[in-house]
Amino acid sequence: MLKIDQYLKQSSFPKEQVPAPERSYELVGDEKWIVEKGGKEILERIDLFLLLKIIPVSEPLMFGINPNKLNEKTQYHLIVENKTTYQGLLPVLTKTIFSTLIYGAGKAVVKSIEQFSMQYPIEANHQFFYFGDLDREGILIWYSFNQKEKATLALPFYLACLEKEAAIGKEYQKEHNMALEQFLAFFQSKQLQEKIRSLLADGKYHPQETLKTKELQQIWRESDWTSWI
Fold it and tell me: What is the Cα–Cα distance from 13 to 17, expressed in whole angstroms?
């Protein structure tokens, strides 16, 4: 804290953004302090992280853009966990109300979403939807993302998955009670909530690949997405 105080007295608040390791070295003489040694959490706790104009260190966010929706005041963004689903949906992006289709790359999106405002510097009311594997790991990814950036479940996809026969083989995944409870809260039907609980308890799951490309595309184009917010 003394080094940070000394930095601010000598340099005041910076005017330009720089990557986290560079700012970290300026602050405390350790380029790893912000990213790897808890510095980010300390700076956030004392409300200095944003003021110090730090560019987060994370992989770039990968997404496709719908040019027809760039000027909308409210913009919708669909995040999908897996590459197969991303590639299946991308051809119909311009036929939806969504501004972007984001490839989450599993849990990588939890960090890479930090890049969103820099990679997509468009002022709007941004609404995120999330669709991942219906298993404990997929639910945890959504939960972790939702802690950083609110994301509504893309329920039309999940509901379609639940109509299919489940796969077997995820008994090894750990249960995360808080993540599961918040995930289930999106399903208004108690029957569906219990169906998901039983599914997971039996080691079953629905990968995104449960839905074929044509089915994915039809659901994305034809669902009333604004009614799920």
Answer: 11
Secondary structure in 3-state letters for 144-191 = HHHHHCCEEECHHHHHHHHCCCCEECCCCCCCCHHHHHHHHCCCCCHH
What residues make up the domain containing 224? 62-228
Q: How many domains does the chain have?
A: 2
- Are residue 21 and residue 70 in the same domain, yes or no? no
113, 139: one domain: yes
Do the Cβ atoms of 136 and 176 come closer than 8 Å? yes
Chain segment 164-193, per-residue pLDDT in tens: 999 988 777 788 999 999 999 999 999 999
**Pairwise CA distance, residues 11 & 119, whole Å:** 28
113: DSSP letter: G
The dihedral through the CA atoms of 138, 140, 142, 148 has a sign that is negative
Rg (CA), the chain: 20
Same domain, 47 and 72: no
What is the model's pTM? 0.81
Q: By three-state DSSP, how is residue 53 classified?
A: coil
